[in-house]
Write a structure and sequence with these properties.
mainly alpha
Length: 79
């Protein structure tokens, strides 16, 4: 996971803030930064099979879903 995460440069993408020019609103920006913090803190299990039951990984997936909902359905609030 860390290799994939690092190889895709998500951290550099978030810190560059260039993505803000794409019209991402403040709520989406906050949620993207939350995902960044979750990924930075994630301690990857030794086996891929362990991801399916890893609580922190499930939170990361849920956060990614929040972001997708905001980016693809920005008029819908997820309060």
């Amino acid at each position: 996971m860390r290799h994939l995460y690092g190889a895709n440069q998500f951290s550099a993408f978030v810190s560059s803030r260039a993505w803000l020019h794409a019209g991402v609103d403040g709520r989406a920006e906050q949620e993207i930064q939350i995902l960044q913090r979750q990924l930075d803190a994630f301690d990857e299990p030794d086996a891929d099979e362990a991801l399916a039951t890893d609580h922190d990984w499930q939170l990361i997936l849920a956060q990614a879903g929040v972001i997708m909902s905001l980016l693809y359905c920005p008029s819908h609030s997820l309060n």
